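pls design
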């Protein structure tokens, strides 16, 4: 799929999603593309041997990844192709004092207004709301600002 990079140029990336949601996700990314919403990188997690920490640390926007929810024996919505993480460095995961990726901890300050940060009511959250997907930035704890999924988890 084509996306706008932080370099203000069009790039071609790859996302794998469940066939049942392909049209919905294509609609979301078409909206983001038309608005020139910046995405740092979009490659398959295979490039990082399926390692979610390596993919997020590389600020990689991704979807399908056959993995468990960290610290559990429960499959992540990513394992079903029903979740998308967007710009993980800009949109960090926060659990108490832990910020992931650690190198991006400045982005735990959600009052910042820099390119790629997702905020409540912005273009990104509205696009996913329109297809009925939930946002991890609305969770009480932890906060997963990069994460969108079909069931909100």
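designed seq:
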């Amino acid at each position: 799929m084509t996306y706008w990079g932080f370099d203000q140029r069009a790039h071609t990336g790859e996302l794998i999603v469940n066939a049942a949601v392909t049209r919905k996700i294509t609609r979301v990314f078409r909206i983001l593309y038309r608005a020139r919403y910046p995405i740092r990188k979009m490659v398959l997690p295979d490039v990082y041997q399926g390692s979610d920490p390596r993919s997020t640390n590389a600020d990689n926007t991704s979807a399908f990844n056959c993995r468990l929810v960290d610290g559990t024996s429960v499959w992540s919505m990513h394992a079903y192709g029903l979740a998308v993480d967007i710009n993980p460095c800009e949109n960090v995961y926060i659990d108490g004092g832990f910020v992931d990726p650690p190198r991006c901890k400045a982005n735990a300050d959600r009052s910042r207004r820099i390119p790629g940060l997702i905020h409540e009511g912005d273009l990104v959250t509205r696009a996913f709301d329109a297809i009925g997907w939930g946002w991890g930035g609305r969770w009480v704890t932890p906060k997963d600002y990069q994460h969108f999924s079909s069931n909100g988890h």
